[in-house]
Amino acid sequence: MTALVDGQVTVGSLTDLTPGEGRTYVVDGRQIAVFLLPDGTVRATDAVCPHRAGPLADGQIDGAAVVCPLHQYAFRFDTGTCTTESVAPVRVYPAAIRDGAVVVRI
């Protein structure tokens, strides 16, 4: 991971990610889950489910949401809102691929 520059940080290499899965990184003291979607784009959210602290990076994903592996609460990648229950939203972070690296804006 590189230092924060203008709110952006390189968390790792794109080759560290597997399509359809997530990985947790610690950025500026917070856990962030980064997901490589099957279409080759990346998304980033808080890594901890607000319901019971489930590991969101271990959840199932589709193009629009991640599902917490503990209690199946689904959180949208675009807004962070829970689509299945009245659970607090997770933060979402803009993420991109630049020169083979994954960059997240905090």
UniProtKB/TrEMBL annotation:
Gene3D superfamilies, A to Z: Rieske [2Fe-2S] iron-sulphur domain
Superkingdom of the organism of origin: Bacteria
Keywords: 2Fe-2S, Iron, Iron-sulfur, Metal-binding, Nitrate assimilation, Oxidoreductase
Domain Rieske: 9-104
Protein name: Non-heme iron oxygenase ferredoxin subunit
